[in-house]
Amino acid sequence: MKTAILSDGGWGSALSRVLADNGHQVVMWGPFPEYLQEMAATGENRKFLKGIKFHSNVKFEPNMAKAVNGAEIIVLATPTQYLRSVLEQLQIVYPAASAPLLVNVAKGIEENSWLRISQMVREFLPAAPYAVLSGPSHAEEVARMVPTAVVAASEKNEYAELVQKAFMNKYFRVYTSNDVVSVELGGALKNVIAIAAGIIDGMKLGDNPKAALITRGIAEVSRLGEALGGDPQTFSGLSGIGDLIVTCCSGHSRNRHVGEELGRGKTLQTILEEMDMVVAEGVRTSIGAYTLARRSNVETPIIDEIYNIVHNNASAAEALERLMSRSGKMEF
User: Of the listed 2, 107, 190, 210, which one is catalytic?
Assistant: First the structure.
């Protein structure tokens, strides 16, 4: 099976290993031809996944039309805030006659429109088959074939099962779901909570507050997700609590890193400059999460405080004090 990956980033590179290990022909496209040439010449993604060689079944193609031609699966691995421009190009070259399955693996909410990725895709390719693949899966570990479990969701079971069949192997286990809304929101919203977890680490507050944050964080994500049309049960699975745990606790997490540096007193601008174009989706997703919660009249105190810390320069210490000083209530 030919698969096309629209990304030159770390996650797309890691998934190229999974697909190639399963015997698929993989073609990677990216917006920067010179970087594709570098990856082809060096055999690795030195910027985002240094030291891990590409499989021999992986090829590189700067022309999107050629990359997707003949593909049965097109993987959308572009960060959310840049995906619209990719979809604008894909709309022109998408082979509608063969109708390849679009598999989104990015995690975010588009800024200003506050759309989930499936909603963005529908704007450009309303008839294209669609699935989302998400869960606790750092690129650095997947590329090293560390055992990983994720979930593929689609409104049509056959599409989720196609993703399962294409991706699953001895180190990459794929479950299926038909709850696209929750799987997308779980992957997006956990990045906001991860910033909060990083702040706790940066302030060196210990394990107790972090455990409380993760637990109450998934409660907020679940409440908001249900209000937006998701199934609360899905948030107790891999794309919800599973992804939240790994993102809040791992040294690989870019969102947790942003929070940790904020907790140490650095400004957001300095942190992002030091990350040198490495994307932390939670920074922009926090705006969408805050906006959607207000529109839906859902109580999200942790998300609200992160929004104010990140975008209004609020004090992290004062935010924590406000959270701990809220009026008493039942847990459930």
Answer: 190
